Amino acid sequence: MAEFVKILVRLTPEQYAWLRQHCFDERISQAEVVRRGLELYRQRIDVAGEKKKKG
């Protein structure tokens, strides 16, 4: 099993409401949505970084 680190994340009320509803509807934890979002962000940054290196 993976090891996790606890963090404090501040969201706007609108972001929190969306996150709660999405997680309820999809039967997924809020932490999992944040982890997936972080991975997508990292992939986007990596792609942008590769474009900068080539350009």
What does this structure look like?
The structure is a single chain. With 55 residues, the chain is mostly helical. It has a domain at 18-54. It has two helices and no strands. The chain has helices at 13-26, 30-54. The N and C termini lie far apart (41 Å).
* Rg value: 15 Å
- Helix residue percentage: over 70%
Largest sheet: none
Beta-strand level of the residues, as a percent range? under 5%
- Termini, distance in Å? 41 Å
Count of DSSP H/I helices: 2
The sequence of SSEs as H and E is HH
Low-confidence segments, given as residue ranges, are none
Structural class by SSE content? mainly alpha
Q: What's the count of strands?
A: 0
Mean pLDDT, all residues: 92
Broad shape: elongated
Task: List strands and helices in order, with pairings.
Blueprint: H1 13-26, H2 30-54
Offer a concise description of the structure:
This protein is mostly helical. 71% of the residues lie in helices and 0% in strands.
